[in-house]
Amino acid sequence: MAIPVIDFSKINGEEREKTLSDIAKACEEWGFFQLVNHGIPLELLNKVKKLSSDCYKTEREEAFKTSTPVKLLNELLEQNSGEKIESVDWEDVFTLLDHNQNEWPSNTSGLKGDVGVQRRSEEASEQDDGSDGRNLGLPKGYIKKAFNEGMEEDGEETAFFGTKVSHYPPCPHPELVNGLRAHTDAGGVVLLFQDDEYDGLQVLKDGEWIDVQPVHNAIVINIGDQIEVLSNGRYKSAWHRVLAREEGNRRSIASFYNPSYKAAIGPAAVSEEGSEKKYPKFVFGDYMDVYANQKFMPKEPRFLAVKPL
Ligand SMILES: O=C(O)CCC(=O)C(=O)O
Ligand SMILES: [Fe+2]
Question: How far, in Å, from the CA of 201 to the mean position of ligand 2?
Fold first, then answer.
């Protein structure tokens, strides 16, 4: 069993209907799929691969050696308890947000100038919005509008993109620590550019962990909690995790498309007669406050812990 791979170029041709229904099916059954022929130029992807590995080498690798996961693992080995570490991840991570560019890694030339993948992802996810929204029986642009709700006149409170650049360095004891603990993603949709060579990402499907197989230059898409709510549970945000590995330094770049912190998110008008709303309505910023403490805990209680509207 492998997660669905969808040829996105077919969305504009004769096979549009089939492509749309394949996407809908993947969102319903997996919460995960991979896009090939997505339209993001290879040149740009190659540049991003190079920039992120240059950045890791010059600005991150040395610091990882004295990071918390490394220290905790060493302590554990000294104690020889054999217990697995559940409080941290064997991951090096930095986040790129448009509004905090001065906090971006600054010694990797070209990084700041190159938010290209983010921009391209933005376009791709808005195209996706057209298709996903329609697949859910919603008018085109519905998701974009819902995610921008609460927008201020000055345009500061809009749906936004965040990019998380991760590396999972080789780990001497992958049985004792996770690359990234199991979780669902909080936001709307995630576009993930994962390593071509080293695997490790797994998704939970019918109680079984399934590898998200590396496909050269593909973009992995997954549904976040807000689309689960908006679709009233028809699309599910799937549990996923990253395994630590003894070999390789796996790269992954996740672009999160999130609602404005002020947007009110709830199930979209339920069209079928008699269907009930299965989720409360809340403000996305309030959800994020709960998520910050409960990311690695069961999902349903999170929705109930948020102040309802
Ligand atoms: O590194 C990956 O492949 C997945 C990362 C992830 O799930 C996350 O950042 O939320
Ligand atoms: Fe995730």
Answer: 9
Rounded Cα gap, residues 161 and 289, in angstroms: 18
Higher local confidence (pLDDT), 274 or 234? 234
Distance (Å) from CA 127 to ligand 2 centroid: 22
185 CA to centre of ligand 2 in angstroms: 5
Ligand 1 atom closest to the CA of 179, numbered from 1: 1
CA distance 9 to 148: 28
pLDDT in tens, 64-82: 999 999 999 999 999 988 8
**Res 192: pLDDT:** 96
DSSP string, 42-108: HHHHHHHHHHHHHHIIIIIHHHHTTSHHHHHHHHHHHHT--PPP-S-BS-EEEEEEGGGGGGS--SS
| C-beta separation of 37 from 15 below 8 A | no
What 136-140 contacts at long range (C-beta under 8 Å, 24+ apart), as own/partner pairs, is 136/24, 136/230, 136/231, 136/234, 136/235, 136/268, 137/271, 138/268
pLDDT of 223: 96
Please report the atom of ligand 1 found closest to the CA of residue 250.
Answer: 1
With 0-12 / 13-18 / 19 or more C-beta atoms within 10 angstroms meaning exposed / middle / buried, residue 163 is buried
Confidence of residue 282 (pLDDT cuts 50, 70, 90): very high
Per-residue confidence (pLDDT) for residue 112, from 0 to 100: 63
CB of 201 within 6 A of ligand 1: the answer is yes
7 phi and psi angles, rounded to 5 deg: -85, 105
Domains present along the chain, CATH in parentheses? 5-305 (2.60.120.330)
Please tell me if the CB atom of residue 255 comes closer than 6 angstroms to any atom of ligand 1.
Answer: no
Query: Does residue 157 contact residue 150 with C-beta atoms inside 8 Å?
Result: yes
| Exposure class string for 291-307: b at 16+ Cβ within 10 A, else e | beeeeeeebeebbebbe
